[in-house]
Input
Amino acid sequence: MYVCICHGFTDREIQEAKLSGANSQTKIFDHFGVAPKCGKCINAVDEILGAPKALTRSCHDGKATDQTSDALADSPGHLKKSS
Amino acid sequence: MHGNIKVIDELNRLLTQELTSSDQYFTHSQMYLNWGFHQLFERLDHERVEELKHAERLIQRILFLGGTPNIGARAALKIGKDVPEGLKSDLDSELSVAVGLKKAIALCETEQDYESRRILTELLKDTEEDHIHWLEVQLRLIAQAGLHNYLQSASSPIQKAK
Output
């Protein structure tokens, strides 16, 4: 499953990155050479890494900003690019 | 009419879930179309429209209660990399919508907003008996008939040359 839809990387790719030593959120994004964009995948990345949930705003609190909706609106294009 | 603020907040949370589901169906349906699974595309496109109709009813109710519908908010999308993953993540999303609806129905009952409760009960019926059931059937078919057979039945007929 795609975890980050802004940059199009999957849970499997995160597992592989983890095996090659990327054991933190920052290292995961460094591994893919990108920076977090909309931020909605942060908790999912932490979950895969086995870290406690990030102390960020929950993805499900329904209070996303306009900026995050814009980022999501772009996502299908990013998905295509990554495949 | 001025509605209960707790009910309006809960309706807004549900609106975010419905709009997110619609976006997720939209993405998956277009991926399936691109891969040639026309039957799956048609069904998911229908689901996408249904989610938007649910969103429409929530927006109408929020406005009626004097609230502001939060149209821009979205939860994290769960996009599968292949057909079984896509169906599984759509099922996950529908199951969490059902949980959200039940919670909201209980709240409406407590706050004596019986009309919101009635609307939400209708949405729950669609979610459980239509969407969740269909997705569960598809995953069962994949398990029983095998992925290749399932995908064959989901694909488009081979087109004749023009």
About this structure: Helices of chain A lie at 11-19, 25-31, 42-49, 66-73, 75-82. Residues 56-83 of chain A have pLDDT under 50 and may be disordered.
